[in-house]
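Lab manual, section 2.4: Encoding a predicted structure.

Procedure: take the sequence of the chain (605 residues), apply the prediction step described in section 2.3, and record the output as structure tokens. A sample record is shown.
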Amino acid sequence: MRFLFLPFIWLGKLLHWIRLGVLNLLTLLVLAAIIIGLTGYFSSQKAISVPDKAVLWLEPQGSLVYSRSNSWENHLLQKIHPRQNTILLRHLVESIDHAAKDPHIRVLALDLSKFNGGSLTQLLSVAQALQHFRAQGKLIYAYAPEYSNGNYVLAAQANEVFLPPLGMALVTPFSDHHLYFKGLLEKIGVTVSAFRQGKYKSAVEPLTRTDMSVAAQEENRAWLATWWQSYGQAISKGRGISTADLQIYATQLPQLLQQYQGNAGQLAVSQKLVTQLGDAEDFRNAVAKVMGEKSKKLHTISYRRYYQSFAKHEHEHGPEIAVVPIDGMLVPGNNEEQGVVASGPTVRQLDRLRHEEDVKAVILQVNSPGGDVNAANAIRRAVVRLREAGKPVVVSMGTLGASGAYWLSTGADRIYAEPTTIAADIGVFVLFPDFSGLLQKLGIGYSGVSSVPDAPSISPYAPLSKSEQQAFQAVVNHIYGHFVDLVAKARHLPVAQVEKDSQGRAWSGVDAYHLGLVDGLGGMTEAEKAVVQLAHLKNGHYHLYYLPRPEGESPFAQLHSWALASLAPSLPQGSETALSQARLLLNYSRPYGVFAYLPIDPKLS
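Recorded output:
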């Protein structure tokens, strides 16, 4: 009879070894995280001296971000998965600004070989810091093996711009394209019903259409025009090229390349986009020459080490302005993962600030496309509680301050946005997937009974009835009306005017300012000035306290992002973002959440 149990014995042994393997892997991950954390801690505590007559060597590796988690999982992910490398925007800008006043730093070398870009708003913040550095009479040298929209706006601020002889400066007009999945869904028997309020509320379109609607095209062209204008002005200021000449280059690049017989490097020189053709060694030799040194004896310091040389690592005491990150899609619950802001940890973080005596005011650093309306409302109520406790709150919008993010921002005393911020997008929608067609194709039936005859049974495995569809639309209409009322009261605007300017339309920061939807144009500097005034603080008698992203209850959630990033090279360009956004929307709908959300990937690389 023993042979009858052999399969179960083998299965038991297999499960035993799998369990041991998983436990050993987790142990190794914990040990690696501890080692990384201790290494980072001791290296940050060690005093760093800046060499005299030094070159600040900026070699950013990864993408720009507004905030990061301080969790050990995040540090581990950064170490073992290079694609996940991030550059904290604040640290980069502060390093450049500090170097502008530092007599030890004479030249800034900008090596963009491993830079993955960021949003236009982020890039312009770095470009402005580079302009300030150069305005102090100091030199900037820039190099990249290829230039595109993202890295070129930084290189354009340099005195000397290097490009390899076989390289190209691929500067093109901005565009906004999405993947549309309706045709695919229909082929597999899936229908996504969308209930929305707002003519321009285009978040549902990738799942309900095969192309971009006319309304979405109108909306997107407006903020793209603002982006291109701001981009052209930054290039013009750095290189002395007129915006008209830049537009000719960007729009007629194929014809210009033909005129130069494919010599893209020489074309870039003739158009004054770059100053010299040379590789990485030529770039380094040129920096050494201007410093009067040999290449091998050049005194350099990386921006990360340079930041550690002047940054204060210990928490200071005294009056504080807490800076809270709202960075990612808004979701309910407590599970934090990359790209989302969970309402639970964020609300707890804000509520703790009410009871911290040193915290006199709060700046919300918002970079979010919105998300679940209940999550947005929960965070907004926490903001209102801060104000009721006598602590002013000011919002500083970065790349995005749209939809649900704008909803929560209306709870603050004031709102500031960058000219290129995508803001407002006052609209609401509900998604409802219907898998009944797919089940039919697979030969799967769906049937059952209810406790009460003829009771509605809303399910993704059966089509919605007409009355159910009307009910969903009624809910959306109600929440949209509530959203409009919130904005009207917070911004002291007539409801009719807010209704006219809403309609789910995303506005550039410039347009939002002219419509009265934000208080002023600018970034953290303007927000800080405003909150200092509101809190009656004296200059030099307070400090900014930047909080990390709050930690949720899912310490291994980022492993999903790691897996998605590993899959990314095999996916068509742009599909990673589209699939990630679709997954987040459908995952958090839990049948079926109400969203105030703007799906957009504003990253330039």
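Check your result against the sample. DSSP finds 23 helices and 26 strands in the chain.
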